[in-house]
Amino acid sequence: MSREVQKVAAEFLGTFWLVFAGCGAAVLATTAAPGDTGAQVAIGWLGVALAFGLAVTTGAYAFGHISGGHFNPAISLGLSVAGRLPWRELPVYVVSQLVGAVAGAAVLYGVASGRAGFDPTGGFATNGYADRSPEGYGLVAALLVEVVLTAVFVLVVLGTTGPKGAPGLAPLAIGLTLVVIHLISIPVTNTSVNPARSIAPALFAGPEALGQVWLFVVAPLVGGVIAALVHKSLLATSEERGDVRVERTAQRERVAGRA
């Protein structure tokens, strides 16, 4: 199997797992249900945050050595802007992530619909603002928190996976960052920082969710670009700057060869 096909499979599977596990925890395990003793078994926002963080950590350990373990178009875009991912590979990564996310949401929908009274329009782990925000936060607050937190997330990815990072610990640092991000922003938007994670459940949740999904595509992508520019201008190591120059030289040579 070619390396390119392996990368597609890795991004598909990793994003599938992220959506199924993270959104699955939100959909299946946050509804309080009394047991024999009447105790509540819902995991709450902390449990959902941990589910997303653990999903991205385990996915990165499982598939990161193949594709880099992005599972997020905002991360892939940020890495391309930073010179870490060739631009020609970006569309393949994004499509693989979107298809994996939709597949994860579809399986989750199949499971969740087995419960009597299930109504995907009531949430289905979708992101939103105003009346679709968990705590009623408006558009500006949602836009701001998603841009800022995505930028932080991508900065952590760039820092921990760079030449001076500790490769064995990077998935753990990235996962813990995602946990903190969820703890901050679940009340505001239900936490996106990932266009694929937002688009997939919205497809199953009706027109109101789809009507707001634009923000959770635009804001994370903007945050990813901001992070890449900040990293390149302020934080990149000399090795990384050299890599960027080599990639630019290779691109110029390819263009010259076609002329």
At CATH level 3, the topology is: Glycerol uptake facilitator protein
Structural class estimated from helices and strands: mainly alpha
Q: From N to C, what is the helix and strand string?
A: HHHHHHHHHH
- What is the CATH architecture term? Up-down Bundle
Number of domains: 1
Gyration radius over CA? 19 Å
Protein described:
The chain has 259 residues and is mainly alpha-helical. The chain has one domain (3-257): Glycerol uptake facilitator protein (Up-down Bundle), CATH 1.20.1080.10. The protein is 69% helix and 0% strand. The chain has 10 helices and no strands. The protein has helices spanning 3-28, 44-67, 73-81, 90-112, 139-160, 170-189, 195-202, 207-212, 215-235, 238-258. Helix 3 (73-81) crosses helix 5. The longest helix has 26 residues, at 3-28. The radius of gyration is 19 Å and the shape is globular. The two termini are 33 Å apart. Residues 36-40 have low confidence and may be disordered.
Write a brief structural summary.
The chain has 259 residues and is an all-alpha fold. It has helices at 3-28, 44-67, 73-81, 90-112, 139-160, 170-189, 195-202, 207-212, 215-235, 238-258.
